Amino acid sequence: MSEQLAKELQLEEENAAFPEVVAVAEGPFITGENIDTSSDLMLAQMLQMEFDREYDAQLRREEKKINGDSKVSISFENYRKVHPYDSDSSEDEVDWQDTRHDPYRADKPTTTPRKGFIGKGKDITTKHDEVVCGRKNTARMENFAPEFQVGDGIGMDLKLSNQVFNALKQHAYSEERRSARLHEKKEHSTAEKAVDPKTRLLLYKMVNAGMLETITGCISTGKESVVFHAYGGNATEDKVIPPECAIKVFKTTLNEFKNRDKYIKDDYRFKDRFSKLNPRKIIRMWAEKEMHNLTRMQNAGIPCPQVVILKKHVLVMSFIGQDQVPAPKLKDVTLSSEDMKKAYYQILNMMQQLYKECNLVHADLSEYNMLWHDGKVWLIDVSQSVEPTHPHGLEFLFRDCKNVSQFFQKGGVAEALNERELFNAVSGLNITADNEVDFQAEIEALEKMNEDHVQNHGKKLSMFSSDGDPPIYDE
Ligand code: ADP
Ligand code: MN
């Protein structure tokens, strides 16, 4: 009796001592007012962002005042503050395909001929010419690490002497090494936390822009992504924000993604880009892929999250669930045998739609990536989905079929097709092998045949696009 009393007293004491701690832990993750300020750098960046925004607003007012109704107007565009983290422009998300003119790159490379000089008599210019050399040095600054701010030397026709250039080069290299060390430290120190400072800033910006109301907390921490719940903010002119959103942050710690290469490397939609990209951009590509795939599914009417916005490696979509509670995964929900049967036929239908209408194979379909909400199944997690003509697309489909068949056969759905029947029903192919090994072999043979066919005739003539319809290529 006295022990129990002592415990109660202690508990009371503890509660009195740490009330704020508890409140913070349960409070929202990011709101307009309450944000984590543990990182000085981030705090400084946020403040800078506010200042820059105010400054720009003031600039716009002045611009308007000066120009009035005049037909000829003066633009203050060049005086706007462009904060490195505040590039809200859509180019930001697609900078891997940025083809804008690069002022540092000469249109046609000019070389000094072998003999070492151009021109005649008094107008001779040698390769040691101060002006030519200086410009060349300025252009060579583009080889420095991207974080190394070199300014707009072209804009003012900057000419760097060899001495200055060499000193800068040295500095750039030591900065690069230092930043790599710092970066490593930061990565490790935030491994346990949900997101790194840059991502936090990105999330904060979404709240600050009014797109999201509050980011309440984390729903899931996976190996490759972290998912947050958020309340939607105000609708913009072109977009209605759902009342509740899910934010999928693709992890920028790179090593987790190594084993996913096979999904994207052979996907011709991304093939040309893949080789040219750095790892950070490849991770953005996963987010982009998920967005495109979700959009295709949405267009086909398959129940799935609706895309709200994509920013770098952060994908915002509608939340499947209610009042911050995510819909349960199919593996965690106990369905009546009637609902189980209903779910099975719905999935069969969705797999066919996905294949025929969206020209996609989920490639990670299982009871873990299907949610039960509103009396039906919702498909999620489609960043790894590929087109059926992907060199391993049919193998992925077969694996999906195995998962689905097993789950429903174990779940007591007598009507559930076995994995081979399901595969044929979804793909429209007619593989007759009656055991797994032969079936798998036939699948691989088909893939190989298709690869050769595609090699010879181009991707549009793939052999097993649905019903002879051309696959959907435009995004
Ligand atoms: P991962 O690659 O980490 O498996 P998922 O896309 O499957 O990423 O998301 C992980 C978990 O987050 C899901 O199992 C689900 O519980 C939850 N989740 C993801 N997206 C949503 C969403 N739009 N609505 C509700 N919950 C979601
Ligand atoms: Mn998942």
From TrEMBL:
GO terms for cellular component: cytoplasm. Residues 83-121 are annotated as: Disordered. This is Serine/threonine-protein kinase RIO3. InterPro entries: Kinase-like_dom_sf, RIO-type_Ser/Thr_kinase, RIO_dom, RIO_kinase, RIO_kinase_CS, Ser/Thr_kinase_Rio3. It comes from Otus sunia (Oriental scops-owl). SMART domains: RIO. Residues 97-108 have a biased composition (Basic and acidic residues). Gene3D superfamilies: Phosphorylase Kinase, domain 1, Transferase(Phosphotransferase) domain 1. Coiled coil: none annotated. Belongs to the protein kinase superfamily. RIO-type Ser/Thr kinase family. GO terms for molecular function: ATP binding; metal ion binding; protein serine/threonine kinase activity. Its cofactor is Mg(2+). Keywords: Antiviral defense, ATP-binding, Cytoplasm, Immunity, Innate immunity, Kinase, Magnesium, Metal-binding, Nucleotide-binding, Phosphoprotein, Ribosome biogenesis, Serine/threonine-protein kinase, Transferase. It is found in: Cytoplasm.
